[in-house]
Design goal:
Length: 99
């Protein structure tokens, strides 16, 4: 789950990384600037909504797995594994918030 979520989030970075070229294309090649800006805005909003959803689902899944493991008497290695997953998500979220 974590690997899939991170791979998906990285694919969303393609939009982030291409914002400036997309904006430049709007001002130099767009016959209908207003419609093109609206499409770009919708694309950006859609990307951020999907990103937040994936992070939320992944975070909840890892926390649920941790709680289940604790209830089932997981050993410290298992607990550490789940805690590392949750921490990885939180770190990934924090790093991407700053970009």
């Amino acid at each position: 789950m974590l690997k899939y979520s991170i791979a998906t989030l990285k694919s969303f970075r393609a939009l982030d990384d291409n914002i400036i070229p997309k904006l430049n294309a709007l001002t130099t090649r767009s016959p209908n600037l207003l419609a093109s800006c609206a499409r770009l805005f919708d694309e950006i909003v859609d990307s951020f909504v999907k990103r937040e959803t994936i992070l939320d689902v992944c975070s909840r899944k890892c926390k649920d797995d941790l709680e289940t493991a604790l209830k089932n008497g997981a050993n410290s290695a298992q607990v550490n594994s789940y805690e590392m997953k949750v921490n990885s998500i939180l770190i990934f979220m924090a790093v991407n918030e700053r970009k």
